[in-house]
Amino acid sequence: MPLTGEYEPSPAQWVRDQVAEYERSGGTRANTLRDTGLPIVVLTARGARSGKIRKFALMRVEHDGEYALVASKGGAPDNPQWYWNIKADPSALVLQDGPEPFDAVAREVTGEEKAEWWARAVAAYPPYAEYQEKTARAIPVFVARRADSA
């Protein structure tokens, strides 16, 4: 079920610009994190408190059609706001990796499964390891998949 409602763009201009260009181009432009050359996906979720539609770019960590959503916030002491949006409704998601967005569901992973996904995430984006060293919190990881395959 596609997410509907009022879209509230990110307060960060670069995030707003990247999401808009990624969506406008079907994922052919603005598809890497700034100047790193490392690929991103765009995730859409419903705001846990506002109910508004939120969109943000996350590092692309894909394995067998599933995606890690790493709530790193650059190693900050608290989780990013989108973490709470997904916790509130893990089935109200749309993920875009390329031209066609798809409905997705996510679940937070722990234990061995988290360790496997964490290793994949660090391989895709090595700064995640540094972010974990910077913070006392265990950085949460969700795994998202197509809603029709959940």
Poorly predicted parts: none
In what order do the strands lie side by side in the largest sheet?
2-1-5-6-7-4-3
Give the structural class: alpha+beta
Q: Please provide the ordered H/E string of secondary-structure elements.
A: HEEEEHEEHHE
Task: Tell me what you see in this structure.
With 150 residues, this protein is α+β, with helices and mostly antiparallel strands. The protein has a single domain (13-149), classed as Pnp Oxidase, Chain A (Roll). The chain has four helices and seven strands, in the order αββββαββααβ. The chain has helices at residues 13-24, 81-88, 111-124, 127-134; strands at residues 40-46, 53-59, 62-63, 66-70, 93-96, 101-108, 141-146. Strands 2-1-5-6-7-4-3 form a seven-stranded antiparallel beta sheet, with helices on both faces. A hairpin with a 4-residue loop joins strand 5 (93-96) and strand 6 (101-108). It is globular. The two termini are 14 Å apart.
List keywords for this structure.
alpha+beta; 150 residues; single chain
Concise account of the structure shown:
With 150 residues, the protein is of the alpha+beta class.
Q: What's the SSE blueprint?
A:
Blueprint: H1 13-24, E1 40-46, E2 53-59, E3 62-63, E4 66-70, H2 81-88, E5 93-96, E6 101-108, H3 111-124, H4 127-134, E7 141-146
